[in-house]
Amino acid sequence: MSPQHQAFLLAIRQHLPDERLVTDPLRTLAYGTDGSFYRLVPQIVVLARSEAEVAAVLAAAHAHRVPVTLRAAGTSLSGQAVSDSVLVVIGEGWTGIEVLDGGEHIRLQPGVIGQHANDALRRHGRKIGPDPASIATARIGGMAANNSSGMCCGTAQNGYHTLAALRVMLRDGTVLDTADIDSVAAFRRSHAGLLASLAVLSDRIRSQPALEAKVRRKYRLKNTTGYGINALLDFVDPVDMLAHLMIGSEGTLGFIASITYRTVPDHPHKASCLVLFSELEACCRAVTALKDGGAVDAVELVDRRSILAIQGKKGLPAFLYGAPAPSAAALLIETRGADAAELAVRCQAIGATLAPFAPAADSGFSTDAAVCDTYWAVRKGLFPAVGAQRAVGTTCVIEDVAFPVERLAEGVMRLTALFDRHGYDEALIFGHALEGNLHFVFAPGFDSAAEVQRYSDFMDAVSQLVAVEFGGSLKAEHGTGRNVAPFVRMEWGDEAYAVMCEIKALFDPDGLLNPDVIISGDPRIHLKDLKAMPAADPLVDRCIECGFCEPACPSSGLSLTPRQRIVAWRRIQQLRRDGSDPQTLARLEADYGWAGLDTCAATGMCATRCPVGINTGDLVRKLRGEARHPGVANAVEAHLGAVLGTARAGLGVLRLARGVLGASATQSVNEALHRVIPVLPVAPSATPAAAAPLPVTPTAPTDPSTSVVYFASCVNRVFAEGGAEARTPLAASALRLLAKAGLSPVLLAAQDDLCCGQPFESQGAHAAADRALDRTGQALLAASDGGRLPVYLDNAPCALRLIEAQRAGRLDHRLQLHDAVGFLADVVAPRLEIRVQLDQLAVHVPCSTSKLGTGGKLVALAQRCASEITVPDIACCGFAGDKGFRLPELNANSLRRLKPLLPAGCASGVSCSRTCQIGLSSHAGIPYQSLEALLDACAEPARAPAPVPPHP
């Protein structure tokens, strides 16, 4: 660490605790990673949680001449979110959401995930304008700082045009809140010189008709190259100019502490279709016609190579599989309406517009949300999916340019010719065709000087083509970053570029805010610090470090995220191979044990957010290896009934301790003992009493047509349903519910000896897990009369384990295995009268239920029991089997946002995994019950029950 950074660190320690000042090699590498193809490792990472802390960082940076970069999610693609100096991460503590004026406006802090803003607006039928493909991961601060747009917002609804108010901190720590009259008045006094200088720059542009015309023309296109100097023309008040200059400034002018957007309608009626053209030119001419027609809300172009790249995806129209014509292209079209009638009119109008261009095939418009979501998910994941197909060791580059839409076909063909000329045969083109905005993806290797030169030559050619020949935008929505900084002057010309340089000097005269981003004096900055992507493990080598997985990870904020685990493992493997830095290697390996392996929940929810399905948990399980004590696991599996009895006895001791010492004191003693003896589990505050024994097993089905085998998981045989005093097992509610539906449950003999094997598998005790699985499979086959009766599995993780095992051929194919949610929704609910009993209900969809694909059914059943439901975006609660007892900080970390997400008046929740319910109840402050208990309380037998579906 340099002397300046050491002095900075000493100064900033007066304002932030050491645990939020990161200097170790593992975490600086991990936090320093973004979605771009640049690798800079910061010397210090600051996890700032308040304006006061950011102000302290800026003051210390100024005092010690230390460059500072501020970033949020790090999904940026052009190198604007990396630093080799001080990186300030904005996330925790910056997640405030305030819906205003009945949803007409929304005030957001920079750490809010874009999708969470839309979730808050959904009940008002509104959304924010920007809609980048990364909206489920990207945070508002980055979206504003990059002027993100996306597939549907075009230019009219981007951050610049929907900005209502801004709270911004300048380099000197001054805060301007444009929504606060007093703040604006004070700023006019304290920064009169700055505002006057902006007015002078505005007058300079207006005094040059050719320059003014150029600025206005270029911003009719999507354009994020350089600073948004259209602000100097669009507004008269320099305060408004300043606020709008901040949009798209990429952290080079100041820190956006909050933003208020004017929201836009989110029409409930939507339809999407896919249209294939045999000729690219006809496809592009159709785009121009669609833009003129005005009935479309989004049009995405997918070129022939992209069509080939998505053919492994399920749910697409048949005409997209097979070999497309040599110059084929497709359009993904979305249209919306205030009601079904308007939507139908718009769909018909679009069809009429397309007809003269003779499409080769057309899926027709679908209003099925699942179908539409499939189409758009494929498009949103195209960049990472393409990147995943690259050769190991190469990186993935995505650029986005904008051509005048009337020259779109020519632009696509000229770009394709450049790919061919420079040998990038894998390159694909896709993008927001309605705006002439094209993304192109290719996979260069930066492992030699020749490859770097090839990339340099290609970028020079692209810049000449787009910016000079076509008068387009080198950056349409991804931000200038480092990659296009050397080409800003080429695109804009000397006069406009001089204005941009003066803007940078006005706001950041010392050049300490995100240096070399947007404005750089280094003409080769785009060729430096290129990211190496060395092989690490085939399980994760496809990762392009986009970061889409991070919001689903329960250890994010506690240790490492999936992206960070992969980045660190790549570095470890690289250092092992080249032997260049044994000291750093030893430190990385030592720290990776806890941060990379121990704290990974390994539930695989990262795979559900990853466009190519990478399950980092698979890598973690592989690296953890076999169980340390397989003999113990074998003994537990062989004597499971006795072990479960001991567990129930332990719960009895816990209940007694709570009665004598009180719940709070017992919790404190338990946690203190756990710190001294880590193997001693921690019982969360909502840990229930032991469950009473299951009812006596019937000897045979009473009526095969209505019989169902009920398999009670070991966790539901141990833990009671309800609070600390209740001893009622979940089975009691489930059996009553089945009876109300006219079904006859069949219980297995000696259930306490049976287990799906998941607890053993998660500990690496594979032999014990396999024996448990086999034993359970044989018992289920016998109880179900050779598979003739359906099997009801009452705990989601167990259901997933058994169903996946059957799919893999490890259980008899005759077994009819049903997870509880699916069976209740498809078989039981149609035979019941379900009435609303609750005003508010929180719903948690467990990881296993998401993977089984029945999360929607869980939500739908919950909706029938409550007037209003809330489904917080908690992809994984972090309890992860027994980790909630062994590593309670993981569960606490994952659920730290839960309580604030629950609406006022919400007094209960529902889920379908017993351990999840324990963790949720402990951290939400409200009880979470099983789905069976909820339905049992809300349902009565139907007067005319639906027939039981025939068993397959």
Automatic annotation (TrEMBL):
It holds the Pfam family FAD-oxidase_C. GO terms for molecular function: D-lactate dehydrogenase (cytochrome) activity; D-lactate dehydrogenase (NAD+) activity; FAD binding; iron-sulfur cluster binding; metal ion binding. Its EC number is 1.1.2.4. Its cofactor is FAD. Residues 38-266 form the FAD-binding PCMH-type domain. It comes from the Bacteria. Residues 532-563 form the 4Fe-4S ferredoxin-type domain. Belongs to the FAD-binding oxidoreductase/transferase type 4 family. This is D-lactate dehydrogenase (cytochrome).
